[in-house]
Amino acid sequence: MTKSNVVACIDGTEVSSAVSDYAAWSSLRLEAPLVLLHVLDKSAYPVESNLSGNIGLDSREALLQELAELDQRRGRLALEQGRVMLEAARQQAVADGVSEPVVHQRHGDLLESLLAIEQDTRLLVLGKHDENLGAHVGSRLETLVRSLHRPMLVCPASYKRPERVMIAFDGSKTAHKSVDMVAGSPLFHGMPCHVVMVGSETDANREQLEWARQTLEDSEFNVTIELREGEVENTLCEYRRENSIDIIVMGAYGHSVIRRFLVGSTTTAVIRNAQIPVLLLR
Questions:
Q1: DSSP-derived secondary structure letter, 101
Q2: What domains are there in the chain, each with its CATH number?
Q3: Contact between residue 129 and residue 137 where contact means Cβ atoms under 8 Å apart
Q4: Does the pTM exceed 0.70?
Q5: Sheet strand arrangement including 152-155
Q6: pLDDT tens-digit profile of 128-141?
Q7: Distance between CA atoms of 249 and 36, rounded to whole angstroms?
Q8: Cα–Cα distances in Å, from 247 out to 50, 107, 272?
Q9: I want to staple 125 with a disulfide (CB 3.0 to 4.6 A). Which of 8, 38, 46, 85 is the partner?
Q10: Residue 204 to residues 30, 197, 211: CA-CA distances in angstroms?
């Protein structure tokens, strides 16, 4: 792989089509190569079972042999299924305008696979799933967010071309990074940008918002700033609905109220309930 790829996690679920579309959109906006990745997680296949009961040695050996053969058959089937999924994603990306998307299939754990290519990743695009989907990306989202140090675009099941971006801003170092990233990235160039802060009406908060406005306007953004009091999640969601926001940018770590909102036991639930993609920054 070359450096600075947009990497899309393709798992064959109902979210994969939107992941392909958002990844293709990102690749074109960033002028970065697109890699479509499918990880075969061998841990999902039963290789052995507990055969320590009152059965004979010959029976145990026969059962183990049968399980090994079954595992091989399931592995071959999963490999072929992954190839079919990747080819469908590749064709979709080409239809979206990406000239030469790369398909890549790996064996192993999803997190380990992503860590192995992290240095070559500019943006990671993955889908969100209900918690009852077990081994799919959704149930591992918090671990991925905590372990990886690349921007991560978490997508819903349906695609809509982003036209308005909202930055969840709290004046922190990570929030400043979010503003600088949006200002300097071709990903959002030309989009109306809303900077929303949840907090009290103070001179300090207004000063922070004015800094954000000036930074973005210096990069030729049409900027709207908003300071609202209230509970963070409800306030951000209400603003999103009122202003037809298509994508949210926010920091994933820290100790401020917005970043606590994303981290910890609520991380997966919060992103799962979002109806638009969320770009998480470290």
A1: P
A2: 5-43+78-155 (3.40.50.620), 165-281 (3.40.50.620)
A3: yes
A4: yes
A5: 102-107, 34-40, 5-9, 121-127, 152-155, 278-281, 247-251, 165-169, 193-198, 223-228
A6: 865 433 344 445 67
A7: 23
A8: 48, 32, 14
A9: 8
A10: 34, 12, 11
